[in-house]
Amino acid sequence: PGPRSGPGPGSGGGARTVAVLLYDGFTALDAVGPYEVLCRVPDVRVTTVAHERGPVRTDTGELSLTAERALHEVRRADVLLVPGGGNRGTVAMMEDGRVHAWIRRLHRHTAWTTSVCTGSLVLGAAGLLRGLPATTYWASRPYLSELGATYTEGRFVETGKIITAAGVSAGLDMGLHLACRLADERTARAMQLAVEYDPDPPYDTGSPEKADADLKALALKLLEDAAV
């Protein structure tokens, strides 16, 4: 059977469930970052979901994660998380009507519907972001407006029960925010220490506002060259 909805709107007691959507070409850290935080929150169970059970390749083609459940097995979850992916993977999900229907069905019962990086474009393609502020990967900002959303600066943007995180590593920030919502602030603070999340990067080029045009072009080329 699919995961049961835990405490929250329209649900009874029990562990709260986080459903992480996997698809061919997703970005590993988009899914694994929040997973590392949320899987250790008391009374929270994280499950991975794809079209079918089994291994699902990331955008580099060199790493796979295992989907524990197929779409048809998961009818409710307290949290839905849609990771971003490479261009091919993201576009495929933006055109996948079956996935859109599944997202909308889960969204009716979630406490929070979330995305990391270009996962927000998938939520937008499913019709969930019209008229809402949202964020995404820095190079994908223009596409949000085409989906009816308004790009908003931030590591993550929360409007009602929809939370969108910016690119890749921002999923950790959102994961800690969700840990606070699912448990409490002290638990979230403890999880931040548990995963030793204390960013002090060697270079100050972690946002497009801090990079010149040549560096932005190189960053995108590195991503494209590594993609399958």
UniProtKB/TrEMBL annotation:
Residues 17-178 form the DJ-1/PfpI domain. Pfam families: DJ-1_PfpI. CDD domains: GATase1_PfpI_2. One of its GO terms (biological process) is regulation of DNA-templated transcription. It comes from the Bacteria. InterPro entries: Class_I_gatase-like, DJ-1/PfpI, INH-QAR. SUPFAM superfamilies: Class I glutamine amidotransferase-like (SSF52317). This is DJ-1/PfpI family protein.
